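Continuing the batch. This is chain 6 of the set; chains 1 through 5 are on the previous pages. Same settings as before, nothing changed between runs. Recording input and output for traceability.
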Amino acid sequence: MEAKTSQAAVEVHVLTGFLGSGKTTLLKRLLDEYEAQGKKAAVVMNELGDVNLDGLEVESSVPMAEMLGGCICCSIRGDLSLELKLLIDQHSPDVVLIEATGAANPFEMIDGLTETAMYTPVELKSVIAVIDGPELLARSRTGGRTFRLMKEQIRCGTQLLLNKADKLAGEELFEAEQLIRELNGFAPMLASVRCKVDRDWIASLAAPETAGRGRSARDSSSITLDHVCGPECSHDHQDHDHEHTGTEAKHSHSSHEHVMALTYYLDGPVDSHQFEALLNSLPDNVYRAKGVVTFRDSETSSRFLFQYAYKETDFIRITPQGKVFDVAVFIGEHFAKDELLQRLQSLSQTE
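Output for chain 6:
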């Protein structure tokens, strides 16, 4: 139903996808394009951990709301409509990009988003599913809860971005595309490398035909879960019973109750070689790690933003604006938290 207000509706785009798929890379590309178009963009960033590390990669001039310490689809879902309203009231953006944690089930998140229309005019224009091609194929062969979550994220997409296509051989690329099409035969799909997309693709996000598979643009603010998720969805949208304690979360959602997050604050500089050795020896069930670290064996005691995904690590030298803690966040499935905690503590103790 069209909002009864003279205020222009704010475009909202949701970025979903499992850990390490490339959501933050796509987010930065979208922000650059909106800036080039003269549009004011704002960001809602969700992290399972207690600090927003991906947000450090976004320009400080971009208005941002941080939703930390839980999953946007469940434990802090009720805060989403309030945060979105405050962001719009304070900064009057033309477009809002919501990057959910990789563990988020988009079905519940979209349901929470619709509540915002009660307080301020918004239009949910697109749900962009960023898909890690190699990881999708690997998970499809082993099954399990993570694969079920990835399938739900794909089903929810109104735009499908098959990322890391350069790491798929010809037959593998065809297999990944066919698997995605079996899950979602409606949404446009694009294969990409490092989430490189052109202006036409970005422009299509706000086009009426992508706002709701045949619905008019004015109706997009009332977009429903049945519409976005498709008739294949078997997710129980009425299941909201959760229990959370600290950084550990127990969810009744079968799709991501297995995902764990460990947030560790470093109490001082660490040895770069020991830290890299720790990352290189992480078990296979730790999928993602990121944080800010200071290396004491650097001449200038440099600080770095590090990103780890599936055995690959990047370090980016940074000069943080404002107060930023040295911290490491690890996300995975049922990994040995106590053992990892002991190893992290030994880093600070070793001189």
